Amino acid sequence: MTIRIERCTSEHISALQEISYETFNETFKAQNSPENMKAYLEKAFNRKQLETELSMADSQFLFIYVIHELAGYMKVNINDAQSEKMGVESLEIERVYIKKEFQKHGLGKVLLHKAIEMATENHKRKIWLGVWEKNENAIAFYEKMGFVQTGAHAFYMGDEQQIDFIMSKTIL
To answer: How far apart, in whole angstroms, are the C-alpha atoms of residue 82 and residue 86?
Structure first.
């Protein structure tokens, strides 16, 4: 399987929006109301919001391709771009989304290794992420990759407050 990682730029905004909608729906549609899904998707993945996120100097989106097909993406943040104040020695993995047909093929692991490489290049000592408390598959995956739960924070899906576990991994 030929895998390629490529930085997403403003030229890829349509593909980013499409894969964001698709993967978020695949992952969370069954456990959330249609109204809350719609509200979240429209807020988080509208074109203007994605353009703003892409323009942030301390954030990067990385696409992962299998052969020539876009299979998923990851968003990482450092410094003030982090969604929580975790300090200058931390790198946040804000999103890791893989299309359903490409899950369980090691792509998440490839992206996490890329995040570790980026953290090392940026002299970061810790990687952290938020994962929904009900996303048991993702939690098990992150634990297998050496992450431990270090906290929790509120996450809003439309008007419903949910809890994300904060999971961290020390890398240096």
So the answer is: 7
Is residue 119 included in any domain, yes or no? yes
State the Cα–Cα distance between residues 132 and 89, nearest whole angstrom. Answer: 24
Catalytic residue (choose from 40, 73, 97, 142): 142
Asked whether residue 158 is assigned to any structural domain, the reply reads no
**pLDDT tens, residue order, the chain (172 aa):** 799 999 999 999 999 999 999 999 999 999 999 999 999 999 999 999 999 999 999 999 999 999 999 999 999 999 999 998 998 999 999 999 999 999 999 999 999 999 999 999 999 999 999 999 999 999 999 999 999 999 999 988 988 999 999 999 999 6
59 part of a folded domain? yes
Residue 27 lies in a domain: yes
40 is catalytic: no
CATH of the domain at 72: 3.40.630.30
Query: Cα(47)–Cα(52) distance, rounded to whole angstroms?
Result: 9
pTM: 0.93
